[in-house]
Design brief:
- This protein has one helix at about 100-105, and strands at about 1-5, 10-15, 25, 55-60, 65-70, 75-80, 90-95, 115, 130, 140, 150-155, 160-165, 170-175, 180, 185-195, 195-200, 205-215, 215-220, 225-240, 245-250, 255-260, 265-280, 285-290, 295-300, 305, 315-320, 325-330.
- The radius of gyration is 24 Å and the shape is elongated.
- About 5% of the residues lie in helices and about 50% in strands.
- The protein has a 22-stranded mixed sheet that branches. A three-stranded antiparallel sheet has the order 1-2-3, with no helix packed on it. The chain has a two-stranded antiparallel sheet with strand order 9-10.
- The longest helix is centred in the N-terminal third of the chain and has 10 residues, at about 100-105.
- It has a domain at about 185-334.
- With about 325 residues, the chain is mostly beta strands.
């Protein structure tokens, strides 16, 4: 929080978590949570729109796009592929928000084939509490209670899909080559298919895939304390990177060859590979299954647990500092 003295008032600037907006309040000003929004889009919105009225729907056309980014608190209920259909989006929200949501879509520009869907000037927090004294905490923002959902119709699947801020979705099926989540977004996909795959998360986001398949190569990456989970699936080859206290679990996902690099407190488990190159450093932990051998190297306090079908499987090991490499014939612990 930054304070700028200006005569007898203070201007407080505070960023609501994960939304990239600025809260602008004057010291001592009365804020009515039913009439005023506790933050604003600086230099973008003249006035934030408060959620009022019953839940209603509005449908608006979308420009053609190849890559989709969903932001703010939007929850995408469905992505339907209808050959020959015009791209469109249907919002369900409080009646007062529909116009600004529709205007945001109308003003959206596709840059580099990427369309970003956000809430525009809609206020997505419901309550603000001001302290009585300047030295007390200035503002308390309640957890967002506003609900804004979206249903998307497009003649084709997106090439890539990114969810950020606190956006969320649960797709029964998705065909894309790149899917990711960041900030506090939550993205769940039951079945994911692509010519190649890049699946990742960062920050405190969640990414969950029930089944993922590609006839080509797949990369999985997790960083900054996010959680990545893939229950099953397959790829010709994989590359895995987990760092900065993130967690990744690839379940029984199978691949012919893999390269796994875990660092900076990352935790990785799962995946069944024919051959692999495994590396763990710092205080990270790696737990996986390999059928025909490969290389396992570690440094610092890294730990590697590799499960092999027979003791004769050839694994080359390289241990430095106080790290550990364990080879056994047990299945990975649940």
């Amino acid at each position: 929080m930054l304070k700028f003295p200006c005569a007898s008032l203070f201007v407080l600037l505070l960023s609501p978590p994960a939304f990239g907006k600025r809260l602008v309040l004057q010291d001592g000003a009365a804020v009515d949570p039913e009439k005023d929004c506790p933050y604003s889009h600086l230099w973008v919105c003249k006035q934030m729109v408060i959620a009022e009225g019953e839940q209603k729907q509005v449908t608006r056309p979308l420009p053609a796009f190849q890559h989709l980014v969903v932001s703010d608190i939007i929850k995408v209920l469905s992505y339907k592929v209808v050959p020959g259909a015009e791209p469109s989006i249907t919002f369900t929200a409080s009646e007062s928000l529909l116009e600004t949501l529709a205007s945001e879509v109308k003003a959206s520009e596709v840059k580099g084939g990427t369309l970003t869907v956000g809430t525009g000037c809609a206020c997505i927090f419901e309550k603000v509490t001001l302290a009585n004294k300047w030295w007390e905490p200035a503002v308390v923002l309640e957890k967002d209670k506003i609900t804004i959902t979206a249903e998307i119709v497009n003649p084709h699947w997106p090439e890539s899909l990114k969810f950020k801020d606190s956006a969320s979705a649960h797709f029964p099926e998705m065909k894309a080559t790149k899917v990711s989540s960041k900030d506090a977004a939550v993205l769940t996909i039951d079945r994911l298919d692509g010519s190649s795959l890049s699946v990742g998360c960062r920050d405190s986001a969640r990414m969950s895939v029930g089944w993922a398949h590609t006839g080509g190569n797949a990369s999985f990456h997790a960083s900054a304390a996010c959680r990545l989970a893939v229950t099953e699936g397959s790829a010709k080859a994989t590359q895995v990177s987990v760092r900065d206290w993130a967690r990744a679990d690839l379940g029984t996902f199978t691949t012919e060859s893999t390269r796994v690099n875990i660092s900076d407190g990352g935790r990785f488990r799962g995946q069944v590979s024919t051959r692999g190159d495994f590396h763990a450093r710092d205080v990270s932990t790696l737990d996986s299954t390999v059928k025909e051998g490969g290389k396992a190297s570690c440094s610092h306090l890294g730990k590697i647990f590799l499960h092999t079908p027979t003791p004769e499987v050839g694994m080359t090991t390289d241990k430095r500092d106080l790290c550990q490499v364990h080879l056994d014939q047990k299945e990975p612990s649940p």
